[in-house]
Amino acid sequence: MTSSRNTYNRRDFIAKGTFASLSYLMASHLKIQPALASPLKDVKKCTIPTLTGMIDCNTLGTTLMHEHVLWFSGPRLDNAGYTPIPDDLRSETVDFAISLLNDAARVGIDTVVDLTPHRPIDLYERIAKGTSVKIVVSTGFYRRAKIPPQLADMEDEKQMEELILKEVSEGIGNTKIRAGIIKVAGEGSPLTDWEKKIFRAAAKVNKVKRVPIATHVGSREQFDFLVQAGANPYQLLLSHVDTGRRGRTREQLADELLSIAKEGGFLEVDTFGQEFYTPWNDLVFLLRFLCDAGYASRVIISIDSNWHWGNGKKVFEGSEEPYFDPHAANRTFAYMKTDVVPMLLKAGFSMKEINTFLVDNPRNYFTVDN
After folding, report:
1. Prior bond to 117 cis, omega within 30?
2. pLDDT tens, position by position, 85-101
3. Which of 12, 27, 123, 363 is spaced 20 to 30 Å from 4 by Cα?
4. What CATH number belongs to 12-31+47-367?
5. Residue 266 forms beta bridges with which residues?
6. Has this prediction a pTM greater than 0.70?
7. For the chain, which residues make up each domain, given as ranges?
8. Which of 115, 97, 87 is nearest to 10 (CA)?
C-alpha cells in the first residue's frame, strides 16, 4: 500500500469547509467532583480494563474520552505514512508522557482514554506505572495512510475482526492488557471499501463483546453504517463532530448532530483553542444547541492532545503549517481544567453541565450493556 504523500496533518482533510485564559490558580478552584454529578439510577455493575488492571465504571471520575498518550507523525512530503518513536528517544518519550499525565492529575483529571489503536504497549506499561491517572487503551484501525504497514496492508475482514477480538478479550501483543474501546476511522465521505471492512469488523465485536466504539471523524454516514452492521447505537462515540460542516451552515450541522443524539449516539467535541478547526462562537453554539434541546447527556468534551517527534523536537498538533498556533503546546491533558472549563463557565455553561460532559457521560457510555 502506498502512503499518501500530501502535506495534510491528522485532521487537515476535514478542515476545508469547517468553521473557518483564565489563570491556573483560578482553574485549581474549579475541580470537578464526581460526587456532584447526577447519579445513575440502578447502575449496572460495570468494569473497564486499564493499563494497570480492571476498574469499576463508577471510579472513572473526570474523564478525557479522546486523547493520545503517544502519537506518530506523518504523512508529509518528507515523512510519509507511519513513523515510530526513534529508539534513542524512547526513555525521554516515557518521561515526557508521564509529566503530562501528572500535570493533568494535579488539576483533577482522573482518567484518560487513549484512542491510538496502534501503540508500543511496552512504553505504555512504563508510562502507566509513573502516574495516578487511569489509562484506557484502544484497539482497531486509524486512517490507513497513518498506521503501521502490517495494519494498512490487511485486507481480510475476518482477520481484522479477529485482531480486534483478541485485543479486547485476551490482550494486546504478548501482554494481558486488554483494550477497553474500539477505534475506527474514515478519511472522508463516502467510506472506502477498506474502511467499510474495518467498520463491520468493529460492529461485529461490539455486538458480541459489548465493547464500545469511537470513530474518526464522526458523521451520520458512519453512525448509520455501524448501526446497520449490528453495533449498539448507545455505544457509539462520534469524534470531532464540531469539525463536520463540509460546506453546511452550523445550524444544519447542529440538526444532524441532534438527530444522532436522539438515536443514542454520543457526540465528542475537542477543538477548544483551535480556531482554525472550529471558531469558538460556533463551538459554543453547537454545545448550547444540544444542551437546550435536552441532549446534554449525549455530549462529551475532550482535548485530543497529541504530539510527536519531528527532527528531534516535540511537535504538538497545530504548531506546524498550514495551521500555525504558537500556543499549540499548551493544549495538554491539563488544558481541559486550566483553560476549557473556565472558558465554558464564562460562556454561560453551568458546572452541572460540565460535570455531565466530563463525568456522567463517559461513565454512562461505558456502562451501556456492560
Report:
1. no
2. 999 999 999 999 999 99
3. 123
4. 3.20.20.140
5. 237
6. yes
7. 12-31+47-367
8. 115
